[in-house]
Design goal:
- It is built from twelve helices and eight strands.
- The protein is mostly helical.
- It has two domains: 127 residues, Deoxyhypusine synthase (Deoxyhypusine Synthase), CATH 3.40.910; 133 residues, no CATH class.
- The strands form three sheets. The protein has a three-stranded antiparallel beta sheet with strand order 1-3-2. Strands 6-7-8 form a three-stranded parallel beta sheet, sandwiched between helices. Strands 4-5 form a two-stranded parallel ribbon.
- Helix 10 links the parallel strand 7 and strand 8.
- The protein is globular, with a radius of gyration of 20 Å.
- The relative contact order is 0.10.
């Protein structure tokens, strides 16, 4: 989400080669993300400066989850797109306009988190509460099941975000002790291997043992061992070509309602 802001703020990024002298890049004020180059001063630090100006605004001076945080940040990203005339380049801006909640599982593990921490020393009142995210994402899945629908996960890569999404079912069954059997659909695109520990959450078969995936749906679960930059454009084009646009669900706006539904079911069934 941090690097998404470069696009919103209309700062330059360049395609280069990973086979370069990184010490030379450092001397020349250039930062590298594999084959993407960005200026340390005119992109990285310039993004930080604008971000800090945003974070001190009144709406950020409270405790919140990452969905609310990124919604507020997305509002500013959308305004910057309008200001620079560089529209439809930011994921955060698009999510803000469409009411799509954006959650990140480790908000401190980023330059956004670093800027928040730096401003906290100066008195910033913002607090990111990860428990809010755990309960909100769990409420989405529970509502999908209880409203007569189905739930599914599309996992691009792995790591912390993957488990963060999949743990919604163990949260329902193991922690809240509510009846459920796991996600109905599981699609994963990855180039990691489970035997080395690189494929966090491992295969859908392993996920069944945790209650993350419905065992009766296991034959339909898919793991595609393929580079994401190949698979995602194909999958996106297929979805756009085969289905007409649907009304926006604006799930972000429904967070309080869905969380309240989760709480009511929990208190109906628990004796703790």
């Amino acid at each position: 989400m941090y690097h998404d802001l470069h696009f919103a703020f209309n700062f330059p990024l360049f395609v280069g080669s990973p086979a370069v002298d990184d010490a030379d890049l450092r001397k020349n004020d250039v930062v590298r993300i594999y084959d993407i180059f960005l200026g340390y001063t005119d992109c990285l630090c310039a993004t930080d400066k604008i971000l800090r100006q945003i974070l001190i605004q009144p709406e950020f001076q409270k405790e919140m989850g990452t969905a609310e945080f990124y919604y507020h940040l997305g509002k500013y990203a959308a305004e910057w797109e309008e200001k620079t005339g560089n529209k439809d380049v930011s994921v955060l801006a698009a999510a803000y306009r469409c009411g799509v909640p954006v959650h990140t599982s480790s908000p401190g593990d980023s330059t956004i988190g670093m800027n928040i921490a730096g401003l906290e020393i100066k008195g910033l009142k913002l607090r990111i509460n990860p428990s809010i995210d755990v309960n909100e994402t769990t409420s989405y899945v529970l509502y999908a099941k209880r409203s007569g629908g189905e739930s599914g996960v599309l996992l691009i890569g792995g790591g912390s975000p993957k488990n963060f999404m999949l743990q919604t079912e163990p949260q329902i069954q193991e922690i809240l002790m509510l009846r459920d059997v796991g996600q109905d659909y599981f699609i994963q695109i990855t180039d990691a291997r489970p035997d080395t520990g690189g494929l966090s959450g491992a295969t859908p078969h392993e996920a069944v043992s945790w209650g993350k995936v419905d065992p009766t749906r296991l034959p339909d679960a898919i793991v595609c061992y393929l580079d994401v930059t190949v698979a995602l454009p194909l999958l996106t084009h297929y979805a756009l070509a085969r289905h007409k646009p649907r009304p926006l669900r604006r799930l972000y706006d429904r967070r309080p309602e869905l969380l309240e539904r989760l709480k009511k079911e929990f208190f109906r069934h628990t004796r703790i």
